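Ligand: calcium ion. Inputs:
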Amino acid sequence: MRVVFAAILAMAASFALSPVQAAPVAACADLAKLSFASLPDAPTTIVSAALVAATDKLPGYCRVRGVVNPRVGFELRLPLETWNAKFLMQGCRAYCGVIQIEEADDALAKGYAVVATDMGHTSGAVMDTTWAYNNREAEIDYGFRATHVVALASKAILSAFQGKGPTRSYFRGCSTGGRQGLVEAERFPSDFEGIVAGAPVATKAGLLNFYWSGSANLDSQKRAILTTQHIYLLRGAVMAKCDALDGLRDGVLEDPRACNFDPAELACKGFSVGFGTRTDCLNPAQVEAVRKLYAAPATSDGAQLTPGGHMFGSELNWLGAIVAADGGAGQFVKYAEDSFRFLAFADDPGPNYTIDQFNLDRDTDRLNFMLHLATGFNPDLRGFRDRGARLILYHGWQDGPALNTVDFYEAAANVVGGVDEAVGFARLFMVPGMNHCGGGPGVNSFDFLGALEDWVEFGKAPDSLMGTHVEDNGNKGFSRPVYAYPNYAKYEGKADRVVPENFKRQVPK
Ligand SMILES: [Ca+2]
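Predicted complex:
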C-alpha cells in the first residue's frame, strides 16, 4: 500500500514538473482569416500564418506575421502540442527596425509562444536612425507603444489559436530590449508577470556618453589624442593596480568602483624630444582625455549630467568606439551625430547637423522631450510590484553606462523603502568583466529566463546567478556566481579561477 501511495506521489510530482500541454483549437492557416481589427488599443492585421516543420533544434510551430495599426510589425511563433502554456516577448537591439525573433529560439524550444517586433519601422540595419526624421508616430512606437501593443496582439492571437491565453507572460531583452523591459514595468505593469532587463539603454546617458566620449579624444583639429598603444598601456596600469583587489588576478575587476587609479600615474616625466609621440607614457593632453573618459559628461561649470563615465577595466572597449585605429574620430561620434540629426531632439535638425553644433550647456535640456517618449528610468516601480510581478535587471561592469543602472536600481529601491524591500520584487546583477550584453573577460552567459521562472512560478528568488564565460568562438570556459546587488564576491582560495565555490559572497558594510 505504501509503495503504491509512493508511486502515485511520484507520478503526481512528475506531472507537476512536466509542462502543461494542450493541442491548438484552431488550424494555423485559419488564423489569417480571423479579424483582429477591433482588438481594443491594438487593432491588428495578420499578414500570414503558416506551419513551420520541426527541426532537430526547434519544435514545429505556427508562424504568424502581422502588423498592429498602423505599422508595428511583429512575428509570433506559436508552438503546437509542445506549448508550455506560457508566452515570451523578446526585446530588440539598438534602434531596431529588424524583427530579431531568432533570439527567442531557446524559449521556443522550451515550449514558449514567442514574439518579437520591429518597434514600428523597417530598417536595413539596427544602427540606422534616418527612419525617425520628422516622424513622430514612429518615434512614439519606438519609444513606448510598439512593445505594449504587440504584447496585446500576441495574447489575443495566442488565445484564438489555443483556446486560452498564457498562464504566464514574460519579457526578456538587453540593450534597447532592456529599455523596453523597464518601459513596460513602469508604464504597462499588467503586460508581463516577469521581466529580464539587461543593460537598459538610457537614452540620455547613452547619447551623452557617445557625445562626450567621442569628443574627448579629438583635439581642435579633429585628430585623435590617444592611440591604440596608449589604451593598452592604460589597461595594463589599471590591472596592475586594481585586478587583485578582489582576491584574484584574472583580468576582471569585481567592482570597478573599488579601484583608485589616476591617469597622471602614467604621465611622461620631464620633457624630451618626441614627447608628443611617446606611447609608453601620457602627455598632458592625453592625461586630460583619459580623465574625461572615466568621468561623467559635465557642463562647463563642472555639473555632472549622468551618474558616471567609463569604468576602470573597460579600456579595451574604447578601441574603435572612441580610439580609432586611423587616428580620426571613433564610432561614437557617428552614433551621437546620427541620433542628434534624426531622433534626439523634439524637432529634427536633419542630415546637415554635425556634432560640433551640440553644446552641452545649452542643448542638454533640449533632449528632454524625446527622453520622455523613450526612456525607461522612472524609478517608481510600485505598480509593477503591486501586481506581484518580478524584475531581473543586469548590467556588465565593463559596459559604458553601467553606473546609470546602479543609480536607477538604488533610486527604485529608495521609492519602496530601500534595497531590503526592493529585493522582494526586483534584483540587480552587476556582472564583473562583462561588456555590453555579453563579451569581455568575465562570465557573460546566464540562464536569466530559468531564474525568472523559478522566481515567478516557484517563489524562489535568485540570491546569485551562475554565469559561464563564453568565448567569441562559442567555446565555454569557467563558471562563477554573481550575487544580487549590493552583494558582491571576493575570491577566497588559491588563484584557481575555475572553482566557483571560492567566489564568496560579501555584504557591503
Ligand atoms: Ca580580479
